[in-house]
Every structure is written in C-alpha cells, then in structure tokens.
Write a structure and sequence with these properties.
Strand order of the largest sheet: 6-5-10-2-12-13
Number of strands: 14
Structural class: alpha+beta
Order of helices and strands: HEEEEEEEEEEEEEEHH
Number of domains: 1
Largest sheet: 6 strands, antiparallel
Mean pLDDT: 81
Number of helices: 3
Distance between the termini: 43 Å
C-alpha cells in the first residue's frame, strides 16, 4: 500500500514537472520571440516611467496582427528612485478603440468599452515573473498629481524591470486581426513611500498613450500623454504574445485543471515576487 502511494506521488511530481517546464520556459519574452501586434514597443532606456499605482492608470493602443488568443502580456516598468516595493496585483484590461474626430484637430483617440479584464491576484503567482531588463538614465512622471499640474523628475532612476504576465488559460482573450485595441495597466503597490511606473517606448505607433484616475466614475476623462519637457508624443513599452505551440496548449490545459483544484485551497491574495530577489538570483 505504501509503495503504491509513493508511486502515485512520483507520477504526480513527474506530471507537474512536464507541465510546468515548458510553461516557465515560455514565460519570458526576448527580442525575436513571436508577437501579435503591429510590432513590440520596446522600452526607451532614457525615457520616462509614468506612474500606474495609487489613483493612476495608463493605456496605450495597438493593432492585432493575428487571430487567436492572447496568452501573455509583457511590459516594462521601474520604481521611483529605484526604491523597490511589492506589488500585490497587476490589473490589465483591453478596450475597444474610440478614434480621434478627423474634424477636430484637438481630439485624440482613447479607450472605449471594456472588452476584457484580468487581475493577477486571482490566479497562481507562478504565472507572473520579473527580471532585470537593463539600466539607463530615466525620468519619473506623474501626470495626475497634483491635480491639473502633475510632476516630473529627470534622471530619477536606473533600473528597468520586465514583467511577464502569463494569462491563466481560462481567461485567454480572443483577438481579431486588424482590430485596434487599448491595453491599460494599473498596479496595487503594498509598500509605503514607493511608487511604480510603466515605462515609455522608444518607438511611436498611431496615437499617444493616455492616463486617468483609476477610481474615477463614468464617464472616464482620459488625458493625452506627452513628454513633460518637449511635449512630444509618449507611447508605452509592452508586447502582446500569441498562443504557444500546440503541444504546449495541451500541457496548459492540464495546468488549468491543476490550478483550478489548487485555487480552492489557497488564499486569493498573493504578493508578486520582489524584483530585488530577481537581481540577487541573476547575479549569483
């Protein structure tokens, strides 16, 4: 009886290893990997980080280039003054596009109806990974506080962090090729006296990114984002990734079942790993 129980445990461990190995391997994204948007908007190493915690939310538009589900979203961000805090949730949502009014030179496009929303704290913490992407002289930008004015700091921090969010298979969003969507990001920061920002991109596509108060009631008043010094357009750094290889899809189905069973017995609130731990492990 004891031998049979041990064999079942070994089989379970082997099964989990087979499931998680390809999932972890695909969790990161590097230049040259597949994507399903106009092109990856890579981080500007000398750009701005726009605040997305507290009341701030930021959104940017992209065009889908391939039918099928979004299975992961990767974005780049930094901590104000390189003082690292702890994120307990990453809120992602996709919206329809409200185009600019061609008859109004002051109008700009913005997010419309919410099509999909995802909060990482509801799912397994292993679906979110962080790594140090690089360094550079970067500024900090809060366009909302103080109200109507905002504030910015040049040469505020150095570190650039890449956040990889693997979407739980039960929540994959089906995109339509040729459609313009808006991705918005807001994070829950649990550490006092720290602030987190979404990094601006080194390349520009279509219209400017926008920001607003995350807790504002409808109708939403989106504010166009421009460089606080030069007034040039600002776009955000992110990449949208398609479904993995068919073999991995089968494994991910197993992950979904396993996570569903796990989720019943675990807390619904978890901390995302502190990126300082990622720094120490990468330098070890």
């Amino acid at each position: 009886m004891r031998t049979a129980t041990m064999m079942k445990m070994i089989q379970r461990m082997l099964c989990l290893a087979l499931v998680w190995a390809p999932l972890v391997a695909s969790a990161d994204w590097t230049e040259g990997d597949p994507y399903k948007m106009h092109y990856p908007q890579l981080p500007n190493p000398n750009g701005w980080d726009v605040k997305v915690d507290g009341p701030n939310v930021v959104a940017d538009d992209f065009q889908c280039t391939q039918n099928g589900p979004i299975t992961s979203i990767h974005f780049w961000g930094s901590w104000k003054g390189d003082t690292v805090g702890l994120l307990s949730n990453i809120h992602l949502s996709l919206h329809a596009d409200i185009p600019a009014n061609p008859g109004d030179p002051d109008s700009y496009s913005m997010p419309g109806d919410e099509l999909w929303t995802y909060n990482t704290y509801l799912y397994d913490p292993g679906l979110v990974t962080i790594r140090l992407y690089g360094t550079g002289d970067q500024g900090w930008y809060d366009p909302i506080t103080p109200a109507g004015v905002g504030q910015y700091l040049e040469n505020d921090h150095q570190d650039i962090w890449q956040y990889n969010v693997m979407i739980d298979p039960s929540r994959w969003f089906e995109q339509q090729s040729g459609t313009i969507y808006w991705l918005d990001i807001h994070v829950a920061n649990e550490t006092e006296n720290t602030e987190f920002g979404w990094k601006t991109s080194s390349n520009h596509w279509n219209d400017d990114a926008v920001t607003e108060d995350f807790y504002e009631t409808l109708p939403v008043d989106w504010i166009e984002l421009r460089d606080p010094i030069t007034a040039e357009s600002l776009d955000m750094a992110f990449v949208i990734v398609p479904e993995p290889h068919a073999a991995l899809l089968a494994l991910l189905g197993g992950v979904a079942c396993w996570l569903a069973g796990r989720r019943k017995s675990r807390s619904s609130h978890f901390p995302i790993q502190n990126p300082e731990n990622m720094r120490s492990s990468s330098s070890a």
